[in-house]
Design goal:
8 strands; eight-stranded mixed beta sheet; alpha/beta; about 290 residues; 9 helices
Length: about 290
Amino acid sequence: MSKYNLIIISTCCDHNYIYKLIKSVNDNNSFISVCVIIVNQTKELISGIKKSGFNNFKVIDHGENVNSSVARNIGIKYLLDNNYYSEFVCFPDDDSSYDDSFFKAIQKKIQEEDFKNLITDVYCTGTYRYFRKINLNNITLLSKKDFNIVGAVNMVLNYSTFFNVKYFDESFGINAKYGAGEDGDYFIRAVKFEPFYYSNEVYSFHPSSFDKFKKLNYKQKRKKLNTYGIGVMALLSKHKMYFHALYVVFRALGGAIFSFSRLELSLGLAYFEGNFVRLKTLVKFLIVPIK
């Protein structure tokens, strides 16, 4: 058995990002033993990565662009097949990064034998501006109803919970049958085993999704919102959370009204269409439930 304090499983679709993630671990962690498992989905090999101090790296050269859940599951299978163990497991994107506070916070929790599952804060890279602000008090107990504050990048699981859930549902995720919702699905399944808590003491960094979204043209915005809407409808229908699904339907309508009021016409139109796409998808799953 190979034992670590923290195992990080990340997929790589862009070498411009993954080396920055690796550098952020090497530059900022001298506190806990970390293993970073990287699933390389590109044809280009990731080179020049060696064990450094407290940090170990394992690269799986898959060489094929698969959906995000399949890619993460390749890393999970590697962990399980090779009998790796850690106090905590997390799933950052290849464009995530850390400063030393993340590793210090994990070290403190291990020293205090505090192995709670956490949903953490995420800041926009290079700033302390929230990637998505979570309006909760520190160490608030969460439930499956809090799926909307969860992303793969802000989940930190203890090993027991991770081992009970193991794999992502490969129907969900980027380029999957349902193009979103893999992180919410994982969280909802995980919370059945052990509780999760929101923590503002642990955080990481990720490029701003809002800044990226603003640069998209109308067609790209429309596709992104519709893909997200279908994925979330599938997620909530799978877990029979129909009231929450209806809320997400009308949230798109609220987004349309808000955008129109700010004269952001293309975004308003994309949200307006998204409202009907979500409603249609919800009705479909009410008739033919997801198992």
